[in-house]
Write a structure and sequence with these properties.
Helix 1 packs across helix 6 and helix 11 packs parallel to helix 12. This protein has 328 residues and is of the alpha/beta class. The radius of gyration is 19 Å and the shape is globular. Helix 10 links the parallel strand 14 and strand 15 (272-275). It contains 12 helices and 16 strands. The strands form 2 sheets. Strands 1, 2, 3, 4, 5, 6, 7, 8, 9, 10, 11 and 12 form a 12-stranded mixed beta sheet that branches. It folds into 2 domains: 3-218, DHBP synthase (Alpha-Beta Complex); 236-326, Rossmann fold (3-Layer(aba) Sandwich), CATH 3.40.50.11030. Helices cover 32% and strands 19% of the residues. 50% of the residues are buried.
Length: 328
């Protein structure tokens, strides 16, 4: 399975693969996606098989234009159009009532569909050349940290997928925010590149949901709600004080994941220390998060001690992923 630099020729090749029922990893502004024709159930099944993804974990449908929304969704509320005007293309996924054309395998058997328009020229051109929306989860083995560059995607899949379009490192580094507009008041099911503070400017009473919300037959409405996600191989613990945690930690093969401001406190400790960026620059920390988690796999540590963040702005999205990674 080749990795090809994303250009007109390779995008055309990728589109032909997808039109013929194959699956392709492609860049978005958030993380790399593993895409197939959203209207082809047999192709979608290949995504689940490649990822080892549970069948009750819905996929996000990626659109080329906001006008394409009417192809996949029905009963679209006015607030959806307002949010689309402000945040699309971009890292905001909306949960809406689905049309019958969306296969059940995409929606986990629910009557809803998750949709977004990625803010990435390669992704949009690929969708255009395919001539159909793409259903695409993150391009990683299920449960692992998401892929934010082509090399990482290859490490997870090898030759089990048809093609990887390489467009370098993704800009945001964490997945899209998922907002459910089929309930009142609307609820954020996953925090991401669009912050809750930004959404509250448009929906002041928006809720923050969690994986304990009831769902039809136990099926989550959105990716990342039900299962352990984003996890490195070693167990991960979150703490507000890494130094204090180390005093009582019996594990010798420890890795430390911290911000640049706090790395200096551990320079005399013989530990595997990785910085995710400056605490003053949460965009940098988010962009580096998954790559940093994956670095510990190669260091073969037995425990990762990670610095916690305030749950505001992008910090909330970072913490949501770290808490999922920590979940047993």
């Amino acid at each position: 399975m080749p990795i090809l630099k994303a250009n007109n020729s390779s995008i055309k090749k990728a589109a032909e693969i997808i039109k013929n029922g194959g699956i392709v990893a492609f860049p978005t502004e958030t993380v790399y996606g593993l895409g197939a024709d959203a209207f082809n159930p047999k192709a979608i099944a290949k995504i689940f098989q490649a990822k080892g993804r549970p069948s009750d974990n819905p996929l996000i449908v990626h659109l080329r234009t906001s006008q394409d929304l009417k192809l996949v969704a029905r009963n679209i509320p006015q607030i959806a159009h307002q949010l689309i005007e402000k945040f699309w293309p971009g890292p905001l996924t909306l949960i809406l009532k689905k049309k019958k054309i969306i296969p059940n395998i995409v929606s986990g058997g629910l009557n809803t569909v998750a949709v977004r328009m990625p803010d990435n020229k390669i992704a949009l051109e690929l969708i255009k050349k395919v001539g159909s929306p793409l259903a695409a989860p993150s391009a990683n083995i299920s449960g692992r940290p998401s892929g934010t560059d082509a090399k990482t995607v290859f490490e997870d899949f090898g030759n089990t997928i048809d093609l990887i379009l390489n467009d370098g490192k993704t800009k945001i580094g964490v997945e899209s925010t998922i907002l459910d507009l089929t309930i009142t008041p609307p609820a954020i099911l996953r925090q991401g590149g669009v912050t809750i503070e930004e959404i509250r400017k448009n929906i002041p009473n928006v809720l923050i949901a969690d994986s304990s919300l009831p769902t039809k037959g136990g099926t989550p409405k959105a990716p990342g709600m039900k299962y352990r996600h984003y996890a490195p191989k070693a167990p991960l613990v979150l703490t507000n004080n890494i130094s204090e945690y180390l005093k009582t930690c019996s594990e010798k093969r420890v890795g430390i994941l911290a911000t640049q401001e706090n790395i200096k406190h551990f320079t005399n400790i013989k530990k595997n220390i990785i910085s995710m960026g400056s605490r003053k620059n949460l965009k940098q920390c988010a962009q580096n998060l998954f790559a940093c988690l994956r670095k510990f796999d190669k260091l073969d540590v037995k425990l990762i001690i990670c610095e916690a963040f305030p749950k505001s702005g992008l910090g909330a999205a970072i913490m949501e992923r770290l808490e999922k990674a920590e979940k047993k």
